[in-house]
Amino acid sequence: MAEDKDKxxxxxxxxxxxxxxxxxKKHDDFICGRxxxxxxxxxxxxxxxxxxxxxxLSDADFTGAQLSEVDFTGAKLDRAILYCADLRKxxxxxxxxxxxxxxxxxxxxANLVGANMAGIDLxxxxxxxxxAKGELKDVxxxxxxxxxxxxxxxxxxxxxxxxxxxxxxxxDFSDALMKGAKIKRASLxxxxxxxxxxxxxxxxxCDLENVIxxxxxxxxxxxxxxxxxxxxxxxxxxxxxxxxxxxxxVAPINQLLQIHKTWIDSNGKNGKQFDVSGYDMRGSTGFxxxxxxxMKAKGAILYELDFSGAQVxxxxxxxxxLRRANFSGADMRGANFDKAQLRNANFQNTRMQPxxxxxxxxxxxxxxxxxxxxxNLAKANLQKVKFRNADLRDVDLRGADLTEAxxxxxxxxxxxxxxxQKELLKTFREKE
Length: 432
Hints:
The chain has 4 helices and 9 strands; from the N terminus they run H-E-H-E-E-E-E-E-E-H-E-E-H. Helix content is about 10%, strand content about 5%. By secondary structure, the protein is mostly loops. It starts with a helix and ends with a helix. The strands form 4 sheets. Strands 3-6-7 form a 3-stranded parallel beta sheet, with no helix packed on it. A two-stranded parallel sheet has the order 1-2. A two-stranded antiparallel sheet has the order 4-5.
């Protein structure tokens, strides 16, 4: 009899998609303050495989729920309680989980690409039920310890996140934002932090066996790098500058930009071309709205700098580090980004179609061989832009003009596109 009672306690209530929709409607009324609204209380429910896509689930309670293979694409789960929930293979692509409680949750194989997880709590947690004899029984006994990690959090916003235990084992944090994250005494074995911003993060007493930190930003990070191989630290940005800095420029930046504008206006007769090739420009205020036509910045470190609304026609950014740079609204016609790093950069509403020079020469914008993963290219003019062999995984191309753009050899896995863009790309692939 006691065993039967235990099984009854462990059994989760199952909802159909139709029944779930009714719950979500009342939750929406609750959020909007409408009469009859009820907060979604889905603790311990079996919701495996159901869809919550683009729903507002803020403050919902999913404690101990079975959410494996659930579709949370674009959903809002701010402050939601997902304590000890089973989220294995769940799709949370682009979801918002700000300040959500995921302590003890299983994320093995979950897709959190581009999710906003600022302030999230991913520390260890356990959930038990009182059984017939008054003992506590682990309700997650079906989830192996190894399944408490291994999620795809590439490009996610994890600023201020809190983690511990085994949640990060084998997880992909590449290109994520993790400023100020606290990951104390966690196992990061085989985790991938390539290109991740870990400024001022705390990795105190973490297991860093086989962890990958290539290209990561480690300024102010509390971490013991003695366990990390040189190979897995290749290209990482520390707090110390790389090479020459803004302090080594011959004059203040504002003065150099004025001299450059004189050079442009006089067709090179007066003034001097703005050249920061090889410089580490971190710490500058950026170049928003500036005239940077034909600027030289080959191999420069321009991480997170602002170029919004700037004129950068024909500029040379080859091999530069422009990750998370903001080019929104800029005129980038004819600029050369060959082999540059542009992951998570913002090119929304930019102009990139070819530019015609005074001598009649046509200059196309070049992104050949670049890494543009997670970049925002929405509503940009990409006519005849060269994307040959570029990494365009998870980019946002919605609303962009792709007329005659060259995608030969480009990787567009996970790219967000409008239906007509997908058809255009399909036609292009067939011609290759």
